[in-house]
Amino acid sequence: MKLSMLLPPKSDARKWSLAKQVGVNYAITKAMPFLSGRNAPYDLAALKAVKKDFNDAGFNLYGLEGDQFNMQPIKLGLPDRDEWIEKYKLMIRNMAELEIPLLCYNFMASVGWFRTKADVKERGGALTSEFDYVAVKDELLPEELRITEEKLWDNLFYFLDAVIPFAEKYGIQMALHPDDPPLSPLKGVGRILTSSQAFDKVIERYKSPSNGIAFCQATFLTMGEDIKFLSQKWLADNRIFFIHLRDIEGDKYKFRETFHDNGPTPMAEMLRHYSDYGFKGPIRPDHAPAMYGETQDTSSSISLGYEMTGKIFAMGYIKGICEAHRIDYE
Question: Which of 55, 195, 240, 317 is deepest in the core (most CB within 10 A)?
């Protein structure tokens, strides 16, 4: 397994240095312009500069994660979606040229991964995030931002019909992330990647070796899935390209995120399981509580749950499990 961390695309002395100091060699980033200060990664020079910055700091930039530019036209099926799909394909070609093999993407329209609170007390007063459906059940986005599940499925297939063959041609792994929280509708917006059956539907339609899954284990747990049984099937079929490690207490209607060592998931058992099934790809600690002196930054989706102290604890915990159980990692 390749121990990785989601890091900002613009050099951040504290976060990048701490990641290196705890032994992280593989970086994942979101190279959206408002985070990178550069053009979107369909611009080869911009992506090349991002990669060089990571390389100069001692990281291997292994993948891009999330929306790298405005994906609303593609997800909502707006008239200019073909133009944006072409830019997406340019990004894939650029990734191949720069040897960045992984693209983790989602198909959450209008509302991305979502929480209702960011200051819930965890162990020792650490601050974590919570989702409570009751708090938002009566909220609706403007009509032009809403979409039905049926239309969203159509738009996903339209997108993948164009993109998957291109990704296969260039050897890029497309890792589809589940909807978080996995319920529909949310604020009047349909969501479709809310069950294992939805992922099986995508896998069945696109047999390409470039079509796979970002196994965010806590999101599948929130769905009520048996994550060990579920991941076994997909690992055996070489469909899990990327693993996100986090944990939650609750269900899809109300949950809070926990430290990696005190949720319901047996992390050591799951890491042994991934290793036993030969997973060699990137694995990273996902959202973690903000610890002493930190607050949860809600300014963007790369901020909430991404303060560094909780991540340092999580990385040490993961490495300790790997050492104790003789799980190979790099």
Answer: 240
Q: Round to whole Å and give the CA distance between 19 and 44.
A: 26
What is residue 231's three-state secondary structure?
helix
Q: Which residues contact 113 (CB under 8 A, 6 or more apart)?
A: 106, 179, 180, 181, 301
User: Token match 């990734």: residue?
Assistant: 95
In this structure, what token pair is assigned to residue 158? 């339209």
Task: Report the alpha-carbon distance of residue 245 to residue 182 in Å, rounded.
Answer: 17
User: Cβ contacts of residue 208 below 8 Å, gap of 6+?
Assistant: 164, 165, 167, 168
Does pTM top 0.90 for this prediction?
yes
Q: Does domain 2-324 have CATH number 3.30.40.10?
A: no
DSSP for 43-103 reads SHHHHHHHHHHHHHTT-EEEEEES-SS--HHHHHT-TTHHHHHHHHHHHHHHHHHTT--EE
Q: Where are the alpha helices (DSSP H) in the chain?
A: 13-21, 33-36, 44-56, 72-76, 81-97, 149-170, 196-205, 217-222, 227-236, 267-276, 308-324
Q: Cα(41)–Cα(62) distance, rounded to whole angstroms?
A: 14
Residue 120 has pLDDT above 90, yes or no: yes
Give the list of residues 6+ apart from residue 86 with CB closer than 8 angstroms, or none.
Answer: none
CA 98 to chain centre: 21
67-102 residue pLDDT tens: 999 999 999 999 999 999 999 999 999 999 999 999
In our burial notation (b when 16+ CB lie closer than 10 A, e otherwise), range 177-205 reads bbbbbbbbebbebbbbbbbbebbebbbee
> What is the Cα 12 distance to its own chain's centre?
20
**Judging by beta carbons within 10 Å of its beta carbon (0-12, 13-18, 19+), is residue 303 exposed, middle or buried?**
middle
**Token pair in block for residue 192:** 């479709």
R_g of the chain, CA atoms, integer Å: 19
* Residue 52, token pair as written in the block: 């060089």
